[in-house]
Amino acid sequence: MPTTRPRFQVTETPEVERALRLAAHVWPGVPRHELVNRLFGVAADRLGEVAEGAERERLRAVDLTAGAFDAVYGPGYLAALRSEWPE
Questions:
Q1: Phi/psi at 50 (nearest 5 deg)?
Q2: Which of 42, 64, 67, 73 could cross-link 77 (Cys pair, CB 3.0–4.6 Å)?
């Protein structure tokens, strides 16, 4: 079908063949091109979940370490350090 959207070829490697076989089992009777679209949708959803989990972990690490160096770098430390730099 004509389209203005970019297209690409996919070689049916063993991994692609396995994914299509599993997709056909989950969605019987669905044409192969639609299986590919559904596989991309499921993969995108899962990758979104992974990215959200990684972001939560990153924020948790920031929260855990927030203020850890307050005793080392007291009030005015950065201003004092910058005052030593030549203009």
A1: -65, -45
A2: 73
Contacts of 42 (CB under 8 A, 6+ apart): none
Q: What is the largest CA-CA distance in the chain?
A: 73
Q: What angle do CA 61, 65, 70 make, to 5 degrees?
A: 160
Lookup result for tokens 């203020």: 67
Please name which of 22, 19, 1 lies closest in space to residue 11, comparing C-alpha atoms.
Answer: 19
Return phi, psi of residue 66, to 5°.
-60, 130
* Strand boundaries in the chain, DSSP class E: none
